[in-house]
């Protein structure tokens, strides 16, 4: 695999690590203002699945040893669009953006930016990323498995989140 794709992969991993730092800061900020975490029991599965995603992606790329790798500009464009959407979600939520479900009765549900059009745009973006990123690297098995795991996680998470928001209002 070309070195520039390894650089893209490292950038994605670094981006996710920075996002975890932001999420932790936002979590602390919200909890200091009365925020309460809901659905904590399932959160570890998000951490496990997303960690395994990168392990699977890297392993599959190394095992495939793709000598005739061909860069796919369409997939890269879709990836860039997901990054724009991801940043839009994070910027719209500001201090309320988090990887956990944290609710506070003193804050209203955000209904602007992408949240004006759908309740959970970030979940859709992550689902697309879990498909597109592996395809961009030629990791077909990772592209098949992890979007399905994401849907299973959302099957648990979205009802918990919806219930927490409903009880909050």
Automatic annotation (TrEMBL):
<keyword id="KW-0472">Membrane</keyword>
<dbReference type="InterPro" id="IPR007269">
    <property type="entry name" value="ICMT_MeTrfase"/>
</dbReference>
<keyword id="KW-1133">Transmembrane helix</keyword>
<dbReference type="GO" id="GO:0004671">
    <property type="term" value="F:protein C-terminal S-isoprenylcysteine carboxyl O-methyltransferase activity"/>
</dbReference>
<dbReference type="GO" id="GO:0016020">
    <property type="term" value="C:membrane"/>
</dbReference>
<feature type="transmembrane region" description="Helical">
    <location>
        <begin position="43"/>
        <end position="63"/>
    </location>
</feature>
<feature type="transmembrane region" description="Helical">
    <location>
        <begin position="69"/>
        <end position="91"/>
    </location>
</feature>
<dbReference type="InterPro" id="IPR052527">
    <property type="entry name" value="Metal_cation-efflux_comp"/>
</dbReference>
<dbReference type="Pfam" id="PF04140">
    <property type="entry name" value="ICMT"/>
</dbReference>
<protein>
    <recommendedName>
        <fullName>Isoprenylcysteine carboxyl methyltransferase</fullName>
    </recommendedName>
</protein>
<feature type="transmembrane region" description="Helical">
    <location>
        <begin position="6"/>
        <end position="23"/>
    </location>
</feature>
<keyword id="KW-0812">Transmembrane</keyword>
<feature type="transmembrane region" description="Helical">
    <location>
        <begin position="122"/>
        <end position="143"/>
    </location>
</feature>
């Amino acid at each position: 695999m070309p070195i520039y794709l390894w650089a893209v992969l490292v950038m994605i991993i670094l981006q996710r690590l920075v996002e975890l730092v932001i999420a932790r800061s936002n979590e602390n900020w919200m909890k200091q203002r009365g925020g309460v975490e809901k659905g904590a029991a399932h959160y570890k599965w998000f951490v496990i699945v997303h960690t395994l995603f990168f392990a699977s992606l890297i392993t599959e790329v190394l095992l495939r040893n793709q000598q005739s790798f061909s860069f796919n500009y369409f997939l890269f464009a879709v990836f860039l669009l997901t990054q724009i959407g991801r940043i839009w979600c994070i910027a719209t939520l500001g201090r309320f953006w988090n990887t956990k479900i944290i609710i506070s009765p003193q804050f209203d549900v955000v209904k602007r930016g992408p949240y004006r059009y759908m309740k959970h745009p970030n979940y859709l973006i992550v689902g697309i990323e879990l498909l597109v990123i592996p395809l961009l690297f030629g990791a077909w098995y990772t592209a098949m498995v992890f979007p399905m795991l994401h849907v299973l996680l959302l099957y648990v998470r979205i009802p918990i989140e919806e219930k927490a928001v409903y009880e909050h209002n």
